Amino acid sequence: MTCELVAKEPATIARLQQVQLSYGKTKALDGISLAIPAGVMVGLIGPDGVGKSSLLSLLSGARVIQQGTVQVLGGDMASSSHRDAVCADIAYMPQGLGKNLYLTLSVEENLQFFARLFGHKTAERRRRIDELTKATGLYKFLQRPAGKLSGGMKQKLGLCCALIHDPKLLILDEPTTGVDPLARSQFWQLIQKIRQNSPQMSVIVATAYMDEAEGFDWLIAMNAGQVLASGSPAELHRQTKTQALEAAFIQLLPESAKQDYQAVVVPPLVDGDDSIAIEAAGLSMVFGDFKAVDNVSFQIKKGEIFGFLGSNGCGKSTTMKMLTGLLPATSGQALLFGQTLNPDDISTRKRVGYMSQAFSLYSELTVQQNLELHARLFHVPAGQISDRVAEMSQRFGLQQVAALLPDNLPLGMRQRLSLAVAMVHQPELLILDEPTSGVDPIARDNFWQLMIDLARQDRVTIFISTHFMNEAERCDRISLMHAGKVLVSDTPAQIVANQQADNLEQAFIRYLEQAGGRDNSTEGDINLAPAKTAEPVKKGFSWQRLWSFTQRESLELRRDPIRSALALLGSLVLMLFIGYGITMDVEDLTFAVLDQDQSVLSQNYVLNLSGSRYFIEKPPLKSQQEIDQRMRSGDITLAIEIPHGFGRDLSRGQQVSVAAWVDGSMPNRAETIKGYVQGMHLHWLRIQATETLGTDASSLSSAVETRFRYNPDVKSLVAMVPAVIPLLLLMIPAVLTALSVVREKELGSIINLYVTPVSRLEFLLGKQLPYIALAFINFLLMLVTAITLFNVPLTGSFWALSLSALVFVLFSTGFGLFASTFTKSQIAAILVSVLGTIIPAVQFAGMITPVSALEGAGRLIGEIHPASFFLTISRGVFSKALQLSDIYPAVLHMALAVPVIILASALLLKKQER
Amino acid sequence: MQHKLANVYRLGVKELWSLWRDPMMLLLILYSFSANIYIAGTSMPETLHKAPIAVVDEDQSGLSSRIISAFYLPYFIPPQLISLSEVDAALDAGVYSFVLNIPPAFEQDTLAGRSPKVQLSVDATRISQAFSGSGYIEQIVSSEISEFSQRQRLNSSLPVDLVLRASFNPNLTASWFGSLMEVVNGVTMISIILTGAALIREREHGTIEHLLVMPVTPGEIMVSKILSMGLVVLVATAFSLMVMIKIVLAVPVEGSVLLFLLCTALQLFATTSMGIFMATVARSMPQFGLLLILVLLPLQLLSGGMTPRESMPDLIQIIMLAAPNTHFVSASQAILYRGAGLSVVWPQMLALLLIGTLLFSFSLQRFRKSLSAM
Predict the structure, then answer these.
(1) CA of B354 to nearest chain A CA: how many angstroms apart?
(2) Cα–Cα separations (whole angstroms), residue A531 to A167, A717, B264
């Protein structure tokens, strides 16, 4: 029915009705109703945090619809069957540079992964990858890891990954944020070209750069979760009677938001003081073989507003850090107020205020506390602190929020707080690293007004970096920076004049082109509509998709040193520690004797003890008090007291008694010592009875004949090692598997599960496979260690043990998947999987207390948990010479748990974000 | 100098505020020093607790049924009667830890003074029960037999009596040991987590950069973290000892609590420095978590807090001398269980101070280096 509707209105790609979305208490989308035209380039404009990304994630099907209806490509996105049907037709590139890419994987590996997900065959994958990378200029960099690409190239790679399956709808969330102007213009040219080649394709782009959006076909202006206006750029200009989109946007804002708004006017810099506040002289910074900053020089005069313009990763922040003394320069000099910057010189720090790129104040301290802490750390005299803090809160408009935590403030206000904190000690120089990124236009202009006041009224020198051109135009002078080099330093007007450009952006692009920034990206021709080779996405279970996740996971794991070290060596290291650590053997016990008899018989009694391998004799005791004293200090754990007349009385056949004191502080050890002493006492009596006294010994001999089976010497290692293997084989694989899934949640690449045709089971099993293999390798390593290093013989069947281990690691990795479905952060995943495996393995599986001795819930867990079965198998095969025929019922029990845990994980895993 | 102290104080107060507003960490501290201690104190398995035992009674006499009824809870679960042919399979499957075989005509032979033997099969892979359990069983059977025969005719008692007493913990109550050692383990674990997390949190939020442009040195930052987090753990330890151990669990603490807290402070000096060090190695919280597993387990298992140190291989004993835990555990055991004073534990305290100083200066160096490499 919906299809017919859309067929009548072919011009609509998506239709939203009364869409609402909230995260906890915050409303991200507040009643959005829209019809988005098809076959055109649609722009979603507005500052950060107004709901653009939320809207796009609903359109792409990545997020669950809370209220209202969203129809895309002629169907309801709330229906999972429709989402499955159209997900191959929608390409979604989330916000953030390379957010859905795998940064340790190369360009080629990333593209191969996405191409496999959409079911392309080997030859077809090759053809598409070559074509796309040639068109975007990435062909030369196929082997380079995605993490080492520049911001612009990352975005191009993201675009290639999105285009690999011929989408009908391309959704791009802020694709050019943080990218230099040249790369940005190249990116848009690329999009234009793609649209020319496939005119039927619809594109929806969110952007915070209003100037970019001028060239789009249709715009949606958003603010505070609501649509302010929609229509073509010309319509918006007409509606607001403005020339530029940014001004139009401000006009569109509700009255309450623009109440205090005044257009920023920069009073000219009055020359009077020509002394230099800060100077960079040939500054360079080298990280390994990467030259982040290359011979940078410039001077900033006192009272100047100096702008630093460049893309992400061009070296702006690194240069600023060198000028604050945060980073020691590899070579070159930084001069602050005419003196060489010495990072250890505390006094110059008091003259500088610094505000870093991200919000970096204590979110656990209130606004007031943050201001006070910084005032105190800058040694503002105690008497002035409260005045200063009050002055700052007043000047930067923070009085109302003094008792609030920064997390509860809007972004613009947080930036004002950062500025207030940077100013609290009245520095002469302010260094601000991209202070306004992500702030809405009004807040941004308010912020600039504050800075201009500081510069012109208080004569504070301001050194600011930005990637907004209109902000750069307000500076007295600017430096353009690219790839670690300063291209030019001059006044904005002079820079524009130098290049005979229309505006600063154009001038910047020309400088970049002269610097060799052009990467021939637009030269190749893009021909991406070979419909005949596009295979329909396979419905149902696909081994290819599963395998693509397995391959990718293995590659990523290989390139993460800490995780792979834990995966390969973790269990071995822990096995060594636990094997040696948890020993129940009690040996080398220290004892001393208080021999008040000193007869042949009493000495003979002592010899009986000191000759044993369990005991080590310490110097004899002299008094009763000494027993207490030496035991207290831990010198001895056993004291024997033989009374006066022991030998005499015994020879006369009189009843005598020997006293033994055992250090009871470790109850387990004390029990064992008691057993030893009793045994040895009886042994001595038996010998005495037959040899010396000549009496019949039979009445003394024990009535019990004990056979220690499986482990005749009652060696701890023989018993512990087979028990440690199940514990480690449960814990480590579970932790690693859980991490592998939750990592994706934390890093954002989980989005590929939401928006590609991969099913939950394919995703989970694909990620599980490498860990099963690793866990099995670990099992073999532990087995070899047990046999060779610990000398624990394997008496039963190797194949039976291996088979059981394989089944068991299927379960333990499955448990990791299960733990990952309800944890959001990696640290929580570690905690849950460690506790969730150690407790059942140690407490309920019979490692210490046999299952049959447990009660209640513990007993139930012990009866059904695979760890109990594998523990019995491991002990049985190691010590009891069991074969497969003896253990197969236990293996079957374990095998039953595997599908249960995996299916439970698949059911609990969400295929959409909530 | 005054500035330095003021800075450390300010930053320390800031750390405490940060911790106060982190509910997960507070919960972890609270749990580790209260519920966890309680659980360890009450659920620590006694050496012999409900050991599963079976009896093959081939005699079916009065004596054999006397012996069977002598096994009762809580040491043994009531014995199962099985046949001789079932013994091997049951032991192989690990159903019973002990199987007692009373041979035919056992009572008759005993009365005739022929000293017949009862056969006891022990599953020695159950190492925790095997040794002490078999001793118990031998005693029980022997006393039943001698009591039985004494009723029939007078038998000579042993010429030498052995009087065994356990000092410090006369009934060998396992919970005394378990709960106190859990406090000791908690000190190590929580102090490493708190300081490590405090540093990683600053790095992840970018606030560390902010501190470094201020007139504050890396040394002051590190000392403030060590002092504040150490103080939190010290207070929690004192609470745990005074309230959980002494009142709730009613464990008698022999020695001076003040001396123990002094040792704890020295231990905290070392472990908080270690926390800083680990946080400089790990680049993120998850890496810190993995590192923690690899470091904490050996520290706790091999320090002598779980099993006696003297039973470990010599090499391990020597290596573990470098770990602060070894000295802390041995000092704690001496003070808390055996009431030792300063005159006894000063060597351990000196060792802790030495290890702490080394760890501190090493961590400080690394911390400085890691900051300059940001």
Answers:
(1) 21
(2) 11, 66, 73
Give dist(CA A149, CA A98) in Å, integer: 10
Return d(Cα A876, Cα B93) in angstroms, integer.
7
- Of the residues B136, B139, B213, B285, the best mutation for testing chain A's interface (the one with the most A CB atoms within 10 Å of its CB) is B213
CA distance B219 to B1: 13
Cα B71 to chain centroid distance, Å, stands at: 30
Mean pLDDT, chain A, integer? 83
Q: DSSP state, A178?
A: T
Out of A562, A590, A663, closest to residue B287 by CB = A562
Do A365 and B216 count as a contact with CB atoms less than 8 A apart?
no
Other beta carbons within 10 Å of B152: 9
Q: Could you give the CA distance from residue A879 to residue A711 in angstroms, rounded to a whole number?
A: 7
Run of H or E including A502 = none
- The CA distance from B321 to A569, in Å, is 24
DSSP per-residue codes, A636-655: -SEEEEE-TTHHHHHHTT--
CA distance A69 to A32: 10
Best mutation site among A285, A562, A792 for testing chain B: the one with the most B CBs within 10 Å?
A562
- Which ranges in A642-715 belong to alpha helices (H)? 646-651, 667-687
Residue A715's closest chain B neighbor by CA?
Answer: B127
Question: Chain centroid to CA A140: how far?
Answer: 30
Tell whether B296 is within 8 A of chain A (Cβ). no
d(CA A334, CA A227) in angstroms, rounded, equals 49
H or E segment at A103?
none
Cα(B12)–Cα(B229) distance, integer angstroms: 8
Question: pLDDT tens digit string along B282-308?
Answer: 877 778 888 888 888 888 888 887 777
Taking Cα atoms as reference points, which of A149, A71, A65, A150 lies closest to residue A106? Answer: A149
- Do β-strands A12-23 and B98-102 pair in parallel, antiparallel, or remain unpaired? unpaired
Residue A756 sits at φ, ψ, to 5 deg, of -110, 165
Instruction: Decide the pairing of beta strands A218-223 and A226-231.
Output: antiparallel
Question: Which residues, numbered 581 to 610 in chain A, qualify as contacts with chain B under a Cβ-Cβ cut-off of 8 Å?
Answer: 581-590
- CA of A845, closest CA in chain B: separation in Å? 12
Residues 6+ apart with CB under 8 A from B85: none
Burial of A525 (0-12, 13-18, 19+ CB in 10 A): exposed
Tell me which chain A residues have a C-beta less than 8 angstroms from the C-beta of B169: 664-665, 667, 670
DSSP A355: E
Residue with tokens 């690219």: A482
CA distance A865 to A57: 40
C-alpha to C-alpha distances, A672 to A131, A165, A636, A738, B291, nearest whole angstrom? 76, 70, 15, 41, 35
Max avg pLDDT among A263-272, A298-307, B36-45, B133-142: A298-307
Asked if residue A363 lies in contact with residue A437, where contact means CB atoms within 8 angstroms, the answer is no
Q: Which among B5, B127, B190 is the top mutation candidate for probing chain A, defined by the most A β-carbons within 10 Å of its own β-carbon? A: B127
Residues 708-737 of A with CB under 8 A from B: 708-712, 714, 716, 718-720, 722-723, 735
Q: What's this model's pTM, rounded to 2 decimal places?
A: 0.79
Tokens (6 digits) for B28: 């972890």
Q: How far apart are CA A796 and CA A212, in angstroms?
A: 72
Quick one: closest CA in A to B313, which residue?
A580
Per CB-CB distance under 8 Å, the chain B contacts of A378 are: 214-215
Asked if A708 and B122 touch (Cβ cutoff 8 Å), the reply is yes
Cα angle A683, A687, A693; round to 5: 135
Min Cα–Cα distance to chain A from B289, Å: 6
pLDDT digits (tens, 9 = 90+) for A417-460: 888 888 888 888 898 888 877 677 777 888 888 888 888 888 88
